[in-house]
Design a protein that fits this description.
The chain is about 70% helix and about 5% strand. By secondary structure, the protein is mainly alpha-helical. It has a single domain, classed as Recoverin, domain 1 (Orthogonal Bundle). The protein has a two-stranded antiparallel ribbon. The longest helix has 23 residues. It is globular and about 35 Å long. One of its GO terms (cellular component) is extracellular region.
Length: about 150
């Protein structure tokens, strides 16, 4: 399937980027982070047919009750390998934040991850990830980041 191939290629590109960053023992620049986020955003928005303007509203704390937006958050988190077996994988998220984000931002994000990953799953993966993302924004909107 074309979409499946694209998804695999995206995951491969992310893994290569993470390995390269890890080997360099450095974090990504904000420009690199934004480019990677845009790639993930466009791929996942297309995959679940989410309106890109609604998706962009996440960064501004706009969370309408939109099933496509909810499944967009799941797509992003699965792409980043931070959601598995119906739960947020806070360990993987923390590892990725440490590898990719500048230290001044990483600390804030890890605090929010710790708070929000403890929320119980809803039984619907899209709803669970959507609630997690909303919690991250509520916990620290100033340092919030989500593709």
């Amino acid at each position: 399937m074309p979409g499946e191939t694209c998804g695999r290629a995206l995951i491969c590109a992310l893994v290569i980027a993470l390995v390269a960053v890890d080997q360099a023992n450095a974090v990504m620049s904000m420009e690199q982070i934004q480019k990677t986020a845009a790639t993930i955003r466009n791929t996942c928005a297309g995959k679940v047919s989410a309106d890109i303007d609604v998706v962009l509203g996440i960064q501004k704390g706009e969370y309408p009750d939109d099933p496509k937006l909810k499944c967009y958050t799941l797509c992003v988190m699965k792409t980043m390998r931070s959601f598995k077996n119906g739960r947020v994988d806070d360990g993987m998220m923390t590892k990725q934040v440490d590898m990719m984000m500048p230290a001044d931002l990483a600390g804030f994000l890890k605090e929010s991850i710790g708070v929000c990953a403890s929320e119980p799953p809803t039984g619907d993966d899209c709803e669970t990830t959507f609630n997690f993302v909303k919690c991250m924004y509520r916990t620290d909107s100033e340092h919030f980041f989500f593709p």
